[in-house]
Design brief:
By secondary structure, the protein is of the alpha+beta class. It has one domain: TusA-like domain (Translation Initiation Factor IF3), CATH 3.30.110.40. 34% of the residues lie in helices and 40% in strands. The protein has 2 helices and 4 strands; from the N terminus they run E-H-E-H-E-E. It has a 4-stranded mixed β-sheet with strand order 1-2-4-3, with helices on one face. Helix 1 packs parallel to helix 2. The radius of gyration is 11 Å and the shape is globular. The two termini are 15 Å apart. The relative contact order is 0.25. It comes from Helicobacter pullorum MIT 98-5489. Belongs to the sulfur carrier protein TusA family. InterPro entries: TusA-like, TusA-like_sf.
């Protein structure tokens, strides 16, 4: 499992950092991000690449996503 920490980064940096992992076809990716537009874009991009998106934790303005290749 790969882990990607994009907390505190502004758009479009979080999705630009995530894209190579999605294109490589990693089976499982855990993404830590700040709430806001970036989190919506992460979910949308992951779904586009065929990943199921699950929220593992959401607290204090941060979200941890579990992305699983389908």
């Amino acid at each position: 499992m790969k882990q990607l920490d994009v907390r505190g980064l502004s758009c479009p940096e979080p999705v630009l950092n995530l894209k190579p992992l999605l294109e490589e076809g990693e089976d499982t990716i855990e993404v830590l991000c700040s709430c806001g537009a970036s989190s919506d874009n992460i979910k949308r991009m992951a779904s586009h690449y065929g990943y199921a998106v699950e929220v593992l934790k959401e607290e204090q303005g941060e979200i941890t996503y579990h992305l699983q290749k389908q």
